[in-house]
Amino acid sequence: STNIRAKLEAEQGAKSGLLVVSDMQSAGRGRRGRSWESPAGTNIYYTLMLKPDFSSDCAPMLTLVMALAVAKGIRQTLRRDSAEAAAKVGIKWPNDIVVDGKKVCGILTEMSAQMDYVNHIVIGIGINVHNESFPEEIAPVATSLYMETGEHFNRAALIEEVWEQFEHYYAIFMETEDLSGLVKEYDAHLVNRNQIVKVLDPKEPFEGKAMGITPRGELIVDTWESRRLVSAGEVSVRGVYGYV
Ligand code: ATP
């Protein structure tokens, strides 16, 4: 897993900004210990390690900054071959990039911190580029850039494109240390926006209409009785009729 390797490098003194890139993962993970399908020779797996100078409660917001960077990077890349596919790229809150309602990328952010000091943050990204099919369990929700367009892509160029987008959005994030400057653009990519969603809160699942995000990255859900703010953490969101 590129996250595990990046954490190891961080502990051994690597500088902020390290990028760990791999051709395959034998232990690729998603949130809550779930696995991330990571075959060799086809996809993108990489992790950015940062040693930022902000408080630990800023870290979860970086997942959304990266989601925006990946969505924009994929959109720009697809636009060269298929404007139609590019228009279908969006973000499923908080951290999945989808094309036409299926997941093409997952992002896993992990942090090592003391009470008020961040040792390091790793942001891991897996992008399905050239898969021609998926294992049965994830086939209904997963897709790849190849499956959406019939085209092949230069993986290094796509990493570079996302990296440039991240630098741009990260600079805007750092001006306020929150997402105030990015809410508008994030919401414009948000596939859940104005959709009825099921919030799979482990304590108490509920439904409502997703309205957009707050400057802290919470999802605003209108339940008709009240407005609830959902923080990313342990929560998944689904469409009422399917994945989105
Ligand atoms: P959600 O639960 O809403 O799908 P999540 O952010 O909680 O999103 P992650 O933890 O990021 O999901 O990803 C893990 C899940 O993604 C796995 O349980 C599996 O269903 C699915 N998955 C695993 N590998 C891939 C892949 N290569 N492409 C798309 N989906 C995948």
Which key phrases capture this entry?
6 helices; six-stranded antiparallel beta sheet; five-stranded antiparallel beta sheet; 244 residues; binds adenosine-5'-triphosphate; alpha+beta
Short summary:
The protein contains six helices and eleven strands.
What does this structure look like?
The protein is of the alpha+beta class and 244 residues long. 28% of the residues lie in helices and 27% in strands. It has six helices and eleven strands. A six-stranded antiparallel β-sheet has the order 1-2-6-5-4-3, sandwiched between helices. Strands 10-9-8-7-11 form a five-stranded antiparallel β-sheet. β3 and β4 (96-99) form a beta hairpin. The longest helix has 22 residues, at 155-176. The mean pLDDT is 94. The structure holds adenosine-5'-triphosphate. Residues 30-31, 34, 36-37, 95-96, 103, 106, 126, 128, 138, 141-142, 236 line the site of adenosine-5'-triphosphate. Adenosine-5'-triphosphate (ATP) binds at residues 30-31, 34, 36-37, 95-96, 103, 106, 126, 128, 138, 141-142, 236.
Strand content: 25-35%
Name the overall outline. Answer: globular
The tally of helices reads: 6
Q: Largest sheet, order of strands side by side?
A: 1-2-6-5-4-3
Low-confidence stretches: none
Instruction: Specify the helix fraction band.
Output: 25-40%
Spell out which ligands are present: adenosine-5'-triphosphate
Order of helices and strands: HEEHHEEEEHHHEEEEE
Rg of Cα set: 17 Å
**Major sheet, described briefly?**
6 strands, antiparallel
Rounded mean pLDDT score: 94
Structural class by sheet pairing and helices: alpha+beta
Oligomeric state of this protein = single chain
Number-wise, the strands total 11
Determine the N-to-C terminus distance: 27 Å
